[in-house]
Write a structure and sequence with these properties.
The complex is a heterodimer of chains A (137) and B (384). Chain A is an all-alpha fold. In chain A, 60% of the residues lie in helices and 0% in strands. In chain A, helix 2 (19-28) runs antiparallel to helix 4 (52-63) and helix 6 (101-112) runs antiparallel to helix 7. Chain B has a single domain, classed as Alkaline Phosphatase, subunit A (3-Layer(aba) Sandwich), CATH 3.40.720. Chain B has eleven helices and ten strands. Chain B has an eight-stranded mixed beta sheet with strand order 6-5-7-1-8-9-4-10, with helices on both faces. In chain B, strands 2-3 form a two-stranded antiparallel ribbon. Classes of the chains: A mainly alpha (137), B alpha/beta (384). Chains A and B meet through helix 3, helix 4, helix 6, helix 7 and helix 8 of A and strand 6, helix 8 and helix 9 of B.
Chain lengths: 137, 384
Amino acid sequence: MGSPSPLGDARVRLITTTEAEAWQTKEVFKPIFSWDTPDGFPDKIEYWAGNIVPRWGFGTTLSNLNSATTIAVDTTLYRAGSPDAAIDLIDQNFFGGEMPTVTRTGLLTYIKAGTFNDARVRETIALAISANAFQWY
Amino acid sequence: MDDQHDADCGCQEYNELSRRQFLATSAGVSAAAFFPAWLPKIVMAKNYASTRDIIVSVFQRGGADGLSLCVPFADPNYYTSRSTIAIPRPDSSSTNKGINLDGFFMFPQAMAGGAAGTGGLIPAFKASDLLIVHATGQLNNSRSHFDAQRYMEVGKPVDPSLVTGWLGRHLASIPPLKPDAPLRGLGVAAGLQKTLVGAPKTLPIADPTNYSIGGSATTQPQRVAFLQGDYAGADEPLHSAALDAANTVGLLKAVNFAGYVPANGAVYPNSSFGRALRSVAVLIKNDVGIEAAQVDIGGWDTHSAEDPIAGSMFRTMQDFSNSLAAFYADVIATGYSVTLVSVSEFGRNVRENGSQGTDHGRGTVMFAMGKGIVGGRVLTEDTA
């Protein structure tokens, strides 16, 4: 594979388990062999920027995976402490400790704006992996 | 109606494209540079400061057989070249006979709403709102779907350096009809069709009736607000894309797609093409600022068992015709300033092959529909 994108694409395809997820995967990632420069994956950010809502939606789908037989996202660890501690964990686990201030501030505002429960944490994780710093850099 | 016809008959290259949902970098439409002189009149001739027409561009992907879509029944070569797939003359006694348009060309019944010949595209043709342009295409010898679609979409043959689409450049060259519109162009597809590449405030939306980031509807506005704020400092074009996308989520959420009642009793087929045109109609009528839309219909790569009377080609033409007919009755006939153009990347050979199909050819037929069209005619080399 010529770039990280096909590898990531293939890995996500492996974990998709339902038709809905498969469709969403197809929207988020470019289908292989679509034959444009340089290797079938557009090297123009304009293409990917136009696909931003499906990418955000994919974050929601991933964070809500809760299958008994395939993949489940367990938020217990993130709910063990305070909302601030949850954001710290997201920073460490998803951003390698380099979460931008604007993202941290926004996530903190969001997670504290509602009841600190499983649904809120899943939504916060979805937002984190949809954030500019996570998706594009 | 299902979309099985999309998978019928295609050659290997086309099936590869179809299976992979040939997205943004794929194929497309016309070009004033090498199309007849009528094209600029319907696409770009209006005063840009006025209430110019909304452009709906349809791409018939796969290489549509123009000689079945609009049949030259008065040309004896048609019948001698197509011994098994020809459509009977309108003056024949066959129950499958075509519907006479002008004494030389006819519609197959699939394009005319059936044997009575009063439905499909006939009303638009009789109202002089539908122009049929025969023997059109590009001056390019390639028979590759990929190449031909690409060059049609960018509007210039054999130039791989041109990456923007003809409709994208059109939108980029004119001010918006509504200055604050978040969505000027819409590609009804999972990825933006090449036709629209380069257009400002233009998004690919596979299903406008369900454009969201998922999850709880209650918290969606707050989550979208977070994303807008988070992308506020992003570089272009991400910043604008995020802002437009977020605004479009809100815009489409406010549009009542489910409760929409088409005008004049129009019924859109429950096919991907029919649903796409219905969504475009809803957005036009809701005056959200849409100025251009690209909609695709596949199933035209008829190498085998073409059967324009009852088989694959019949079903594809019927879906195409009934969808356009609904759009005409619902939008154009009610006075909306919309021009629809429909093209394919190339046509098929005149002579049928040994599999009762037709192989890749050159020219095909184009359609233009709207109140600004001087229609009710079939243009050819002699009449253009």
